């Protein structure tokens, strides 16, 4: 079955151009001109990815993304005219998987969609269940679910991919470039500090004390490693 992409933008011309390129790639497309309408569509339809403009007439794209993240790990590609680093970091911190700056090439948007969907496919997994810290942290890979002290943890697709990449190789140090390739793809053109932001978000969700991480440990001057078996 073809993947379904929801395009959310209040400009009909942008929706038309983006959906045209996506349909040429074989995707089924849905459209929405506002945030409330987009959330309604997501209640009714099975969607595989959302392309989300940040400047919507009824609510901000950031708020739409937050509401999506409260109930789903659905991939989100943001379209934004906001060019500052802080704006981009904010978008990633609330759960966006990638962003494209306006004005943009529709070919670039289509390429980013392909890359995100390629990254969020199920990987060849080493185990159906991985447990760390005496069961304090559990990853159920066959369900793509993570539990902390028995409670489900809501992760974005990139956060899950990052956790899985680290946890599958305990004690191995990964450089930021290696993690970018594994999580964001070799064609990612953003700042390597994007990985730092994802690590920060992930620590907030899985660590008992985020400022004193037990699992995702910084290797200064090198990168990060997963210390799942290094503490009692």
H and E string: EHEHEHEHEHEEEEHEHHEE
Q: Helix fraction?
A: 25-40%
Supply the helix-strand structural class.
alpha/beta
N-to-C CA distance: 46 Å
Oligomerization state of this entry?
A: single chain
Number of strands: 12
Low-confidence stretches: 122-126
Major β-sheet strand ordering: 2-1-3-4-5
How many helix segments?
A: 8
Shape call: globular
Radius of gyration: 18 Å
Strand content: 15-25%
**Largest β sheet strand count, sense and barrel closure:** 5 strands, parallel
Mean pLDDT metric: 84
Protein name: Response regulator transcription factor
Organism: Paenibacillus ehimensis
Pfam family, one: Response_reg
Keywords: DNA-binding, Phosphoprotein, Transcription, Transcription regulation, Two-component regulatory system
What are its keywords?
single chain; 232 residues; alpha/beta; five-stranded parallel β-sheet; four-stranded antiparallel β-sheet; 8 helices; 38% helix; globular
Structural write-up:
- The protein contains eight helices and twelve strands.
- The chain is α/β, with parallel strands linked by helices.
- The strands form three sheets. A five-stranded parallel β-sheet has the order 2-1-3-4-5, sandwiched between helices.
- Helix 1 (12-24) packs across helix 5 (106-119), helix 2 (35-44) runs parallel beside helix 3 and helix 6 (157-167) packs across helix 7.
- The longest helix has 14 residues, at 106-119.
